[in-house]
C-alpha cells in the first residue's frame, strides 16, 4: 500500500492532491491502520476526469482499454498496462482453479466480449490456467446450444440471467441437464440470489458459483467463490484490499453489511485508493482451518444506489427476488417497477411469470403480495403474466428494476 501511495503521489492529479491535503507526503507516512482516514475516490471523480484524468502510468505503457457497462448511465474508461493484464489473468486463473477448473477443461465463455470486461477477463484467466476457452460471447443462443452439444464443455461462464435463459432454451428443445457435459458454472456481473442458484443448478446440472468484479478495480476476479469457500467469495485481497463502510463513511465491523471499498494495491494504469463501489455486502475472515487465507465477502445484496425507498421503507431488489423465487410456482423472470407517477405515494409493482400457464393468477398474486408484505413490510402490487411475456436479456446485463415516472407502462399490461 505504501508503494501504491508513492505511485499516486508521483503521478500527480486528483488522488495525489487529496493525499497531500490530508498530510501524506510519502507512502511510509501511512499504515493499514490509518487507511480509513485517507480520502475516497468515486465514480464521479472518474466521470469528472473522463476519459483518462486518473491514469497514473505513461500513455505508452497502456496496452488496452476497457469500459463499464454504464449501469448508472455514463461510461467509465479504464486503461490497463501489461502489468495490470498480468494481475488480471493471475486472479482470474486463481478464481477458475478454485472453482475446480483444470488444464483439461473447456470453458464455454458466454460473457460479452468488447469494452465490457466479462469476456476478456475469463478468457485471459482460462488461458493462464492452461485450460481451453471457447470465446462465444453473449447472444446467438442457437449457436451457444449447438456448441455446447458438439464440443461438450465442462465449464460455463455468463451472467446468471443468461444461464437461466440457456437452460430454459435447452429444456424447450427436449434436452435435459443429464445430457449436458457441464460441471461448473461461474456466474456474475449482476446481482443474483440463492433461489436463482438452485434454479440454474437444476436447469444445467452443474455447480453454480458466484464471481464478482468491477471494471474500475480490474473486472471479474476481484472475488470469486471456490468449491470450499462455503457460499462466500474469496477476495483477491493481495491485489484488491477491501473495506466495508456504513452510510456515514466509517468502517463497519466484520460480518455487517455496508458499502464495499477497494484499494488496488498492485495496479499501475489506473490505481485507485479507497474506491467506493456502491455495492453492498459484508466481509468476513477465511473458513476456519482452511488453507485459503483470503478474507471472504457475501454475495452483493444490492448497490447503495439501487436501494428503493418506498413510503419510507428501504427495499433492495435482491430481497424482492428472494421472496419471489422462494415460491416454486414462480419462474426466474420478473420485473420490479418503481411507480413514482404520484410522487407522494410511490408504489412497487411487480411483474411475475408462472412456470405453468394454468396457474391461477388471483391466487398467485395474493400469495406473493402477502409474502412480500411479511418480508419487506410494504404492500406491493403483484401482476402475473403469461410465460414468455417479460423480456429476457440475451446479451449484457439483465434489467430487472425500472422506474416509471410518467407515460406508458414499462411493461404492457402492468397498469
Ligand atoms: P457498471 O457499474 O456500469 O455495471 P461494470 O460492468 O464494471 O460496470 O459492472 C460492475 C458492477 O456489476 C459491480 O459494481 C456490481 O454492481 C455488479 N456485479 C458484478 N458482479 C456481480 C455479482 N457477482 N453479484 C452482484 N453484482 C455484481
TrEMBL record:
It holds the Pfam family AMP-binding. The keyword Ligase applies. The keyword Phosphoprotein does not apply. Keywords: Ligase. Residues 312-402 form the AMP-dependent ligase C-terminal domain. Residues 56-262 form the AMP-dependent synthetase/ligase domain. One of its GO terms (molecular function) is ligase activity. PANTHER family: BLR5969 PROTEIN. This is Phenylacetate--CoA ligase. It comes from Saccharopolyspora taberi.
Amino acid at each position: 500500500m505504501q508503494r501504491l501511495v508513492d505511485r499516486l503521489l508521483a503521478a500527480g492529479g486528483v488522488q495525489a492532491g487529496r493525499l497531500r491535503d490530508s498530510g501524506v507526503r510519502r507512502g511510509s507516512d501511512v499504515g493499514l491502520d490509518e487507511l480509513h482516514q485517507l480520502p475516497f475516490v468515486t465514480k464521479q471523480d472518474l466521470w469528472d476526469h473522463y476519459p483518462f484524468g486518473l491514469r497514473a502510468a505513461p500513455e505508452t505503457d497502456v496496452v488496452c482499454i476497457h469500459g463499464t457497462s454504464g449501469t448508472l448511465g455514463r461510461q467509465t474508461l479504464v486503461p490497463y498496462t501489461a502489468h495490470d493484464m498480468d494481475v488480471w489473468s493471475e486472479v482470474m486463473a486463481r478464481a477458475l482453479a478454485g472453482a475446480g477448473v483444470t488444464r483439461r477443461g473447456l470453458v464455454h465463455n458466454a460473457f460479452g466480449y468488447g469494452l465490457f470486461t466479462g469476456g476478456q477477463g475469463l478468457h485471459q484467466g482460462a488461458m493462464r490456467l492452461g485450460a481451453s476457452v471457447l470465446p462465444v460471447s453473449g447472444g446467438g443462443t442457437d449457436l451457444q446450444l449447438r456448441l455446447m452439444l458438439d464440443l461438450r464443455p465442462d465449464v460455463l461462464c455468463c451472467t446468471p440471467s443468461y444461464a437461466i435463459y440457456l437452460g430454459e432454451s435447452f429444456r424447450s428443445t427436449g434436452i435435459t441437464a443429464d445430457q449436458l457435459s457441464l460441471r461448473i458454472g461461474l456466474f456474475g456481473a449482476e446481482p443474483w440470489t440463492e433461489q436463482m442458484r438452485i434454479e440454474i443448478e437444476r436447469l444445467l446440472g452443474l455447480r453454480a458459483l458466484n464471481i464478482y468484479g468491477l471494471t474500475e478495480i480490474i473486472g471479474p476476479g476481484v472475488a470469486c467463490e471456490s468449491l470450499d469457500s462455503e457460499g462466500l467469495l474469496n477476495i483477491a485481497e493481495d491485489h484488491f484490499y477491501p473495506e466495508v463502510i456504513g452510510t456515514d463513511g466509517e468502517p463497519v465491523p466484520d460480518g455487517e453489511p455496508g458499502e464495499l471499498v477497494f484499494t488496488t494495491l498492485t495496479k499501475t494504469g489506473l490505481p485507485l485508493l479507497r474506491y467506493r463501489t456502491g455495492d453492498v455486502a459484508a466481509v468476513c475472515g477465511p473458513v476456519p482451518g482452511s488453507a485459503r487465507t483470503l478474507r471472504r465477502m457475501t454475495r452483493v445484496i444490492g448497490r447503495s444506489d439501487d436501494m428503493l425507498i418506498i413510503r419510507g421503507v428501504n427495499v433492495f431488489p435482491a430481497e424482492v427476488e428472494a421472496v419471489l423465487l422462494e415460491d416454486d410456482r414462480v419462474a426466474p423472470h420478473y420485473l420490479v417497477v418503481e411507480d413514482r407517477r404520484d410522487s407522494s405515494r410511490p408504489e412497487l409493482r411487480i411483474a411475475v411469470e408462472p412456470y405453468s400457464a394454468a396457474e391461477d393468477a388471483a391466487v398467485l398474486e395474493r400469495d406473493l403480495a402477502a409474502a412480500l408484505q411479511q418480508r419487506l413490510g410494504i404492500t406491493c402490487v403483484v401482476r402475473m403474466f403469461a410465460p414468455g411475456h417479460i423480456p429476457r436479456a440475451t446479451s449484457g446485463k439483465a434489467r430487472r428494476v425500472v422506474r416509471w415516472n410518467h407515460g406508458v407502462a414499462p411493461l404492457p399490461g402492468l397498469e
